[in-house]
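The data are set out underneath:

___
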Amino acid sequence: MKFKSVTFGILAGSAIGAIATLLSAPQSGKDLKGQINKNKDEWKAVLTEIKTNAAEVKDSVSRLTSESKKTITHVKDDMQSSIQTWQGETEPNIQHIKDDITAIEQLADNMEQKISQQ
Protein backbone atom coordinates (compact mmCIF):
# COMPACT_ATOMS: atom_id res chain seq x y z
CA MET A 1 0.00 0.00 0.00
CA LYS A 2 2.80 2.42 0.86
CA PHE A 3 4.69 1.55 -2.33
CA LYS A 4 1.66 2.48 -4.42
CA SER A 5 1.26 5.75 -2.52
CA VAL A 6 4.89 6.69 -2.99
CA THR A 7 4.81 5.78 -6.68
CA PHE A 8 1.60 7.72 -7.20
CA GLY A 9 3.09 10.70 -5.35
CA ILE A 10 6.22 10.67 -7.50
CA LEU A 11 4.21 10.41 -10.71
CA ALA A 12 1.73 13.11 -9.69
CA GLY A 13 4.54 15.42 -8.56
CA SER A 14 6.41 14.91 -11.81
CA ALA A 15 3.31 15.59 -13.90
CA ILE A 16 2.43 18.71 -11.93
CA GLY A 17 6.02 19.96 -12.16
CA ALA A 18 6.08 19.38 -15.91
CA ILE A 19 2.76 21.17 -16.43
CA ALA A 20 3.85 24.09 -14.24
CA THR A 21 7.11 24.39 -16.14
CA LEU A 22 5.35 24.34 -19.50
CA LEU A 23 2.72 26.87 -18.44
CA SER A 24 5.23 29.27 -16.91
CA ALA A 25 7.50 29.20 -19.95
CA PRO A 26 7.37 32.35 -22.09
CA GLN A 27 5.81 30.81 -25.21
CA SER A 28 2.81 31.56 -27.34
CA GLY A 29 -0.23 29.29 -27.08
CA LYS A 30 0.53 27.66 -30.41
CA ASP A 31 4.15 27.00 -29.45
CA LEU A 32 3.07 25.69 -26.05
CA LYS A 33 0.54 23.34 -27.64
CA GLY A 34 3.20 22.06 -30.06
CA GLN A 35 5.64 21.60 -27.18
CA ILE A 36 3.03 19.67 -25.18
CA ASN A 37 2.23 17.40 -28.11
CA LYS A 38 5.93 16.80 -28.71
CA ASN A 39 6.65 15.98 -25.07
CA LYS A 40 3.47 13.93 -24.61
CA ASP A 41 4.95 10.84 -26.23
CA GLU A 42 8.19 11.21 -24.31
CA TRP A 43 6.29 11.45 -21.01
CA LYS A 44 4.19 8.43 -21.91
CA ALA A 45 7.37 6.46 -22.57
CA VAL A 46 8.87 7.62 -19.27
CA LEU A 47 5.70 6.72 -17.35
CA THR A 48 5.54 3.32 -19.04
CA GLU A 49 9.17 2.70 -18.11
CA ILE A 50 8.51 3.75 -14.51
CA LYS A 51 5.50 1.45 -14.36
CA THR A 52 7.55 -1.44 -15.76
CA ASN A 53 10.39 -0.77 -13.32
CA ALA A 54 7.95 -0.58 -10.42
CA ALA A 55 6.45 -3.94 -11.40
CA GLU A 56 9.94 -5.45 -11.63
CA VAL A 57 10.85 -4.06 -8.21
CA LYS A 58 7.63 -5.44 -6.75
CA ASP A 59 8.34 -8.88 -8.24
CA SER A 60 11.93 -8.77 -6.99
CA VAL A 61 10.80 -7.84 -3.48
CA SER A 62 8.23 -10.64 -3.50
CA ARG A 63 10.81 -13.15 -4.70
CA LEU A 64 13.37 -11.93 -2.16
CA THR A 65 10.81 -12.15 0.65
CA SER A 66 9.89 -15.69 -0.31
CA GLU A 67 13.51 -16.81 -0.62
CA SER A 68 14.42 -15.08 2.65
CA LYS A 69 11.67 -16.91 4.51
CA LYS A 70 12.95 -20.24 3.18
CA THR A 71 16.56 -19.36 3.96
CA ILE A 72 15.76 -18.17 7.47
CA THR A 73 13.83 -21.37 8.14
CA HIS A 74 16.76 -23.49 6.95
CA VAL A 75 19.27 -21.47 8.97
CA LYS A 76 17.08 -21.73 12.08
CA ASP A 77 16.74 -25.49 11.66
CA ASP A 78 20.49 -25.87 11.06
CA MET A 79 21.30 -23.79 14.14
CA GLN A 80 18.91 -25.80 16.31
CA SER A 81 20.46 -29.02 15.04
CA SER A 82 23.98 -27.70 15.65
CA ILE A 83 23.07 -26.58 19.17
CA GLN A 84 21.54 -29.95 19.99
CA THR A 85 24.60 -31.74 18.61
CA TRP A 86 26.91 -29.47 20.59
CA GLN A 87 24.90 -30.04 23.76
CA GLY A 88 25.02 -33.80 23.21
CA GLU A 89 28.76 -33.71 22.62
CA THR A 90 29.54 -31.47 25.58
CA GLU A 91 27.29 -33.21 28.12
CA PRO A 92 29.84 -35.98 28.89
CA ASN A 93 32.57 -33.38 29.32
CA ILE A 94 30.38 -31.35 31.66
CA GLN A 95 29.67 -34.46 33.71
CA HIS A 96 33.42 -35.26 33.88
CA ILE A 97 34.12 -31.72 35.06
CA LYS A 98 31.40 -31.99 37.73
CA ASP A 99 32.86 -35.31 38.86
CA ASP A 100 36.35 -33.77 38.99
CA ILE A 101 35.06 -30.83 41.05
CA THR A 102 33.35 -33.21 43.46
CA ALA A 103 36.56 -35.23 43.79
CA ILE A 104 38.60 -32.06 44.40
CA GLU A 105 36.10 -30.91 47.04
CA GLN A 106 36.37 -34.31 48.77
CA LEU A 107 40.16 -34.12 48.69
CA ALA A 108 40.05 -30.62 50.14
CA ASP A 109 37.70 -31.80 52.92
CA ASN A 110 39.99 -34.76 53.65
CA MET A 111 43.02 -32.47 53.79
CA GLU A 112 41.22 -30.10 56.14
CA GLN A 113 40.32 -33.00 58.45
CA LYS A 114 43.91 -34.28 58.46
CA ILE A 115 45.27 -30.80 59.13
CA SER A 116 42.76 -30.20 61.93
CA GLN A 117 43.61 -33.59 63.51
CA GLN A 118 47.30 -32.74 63.66
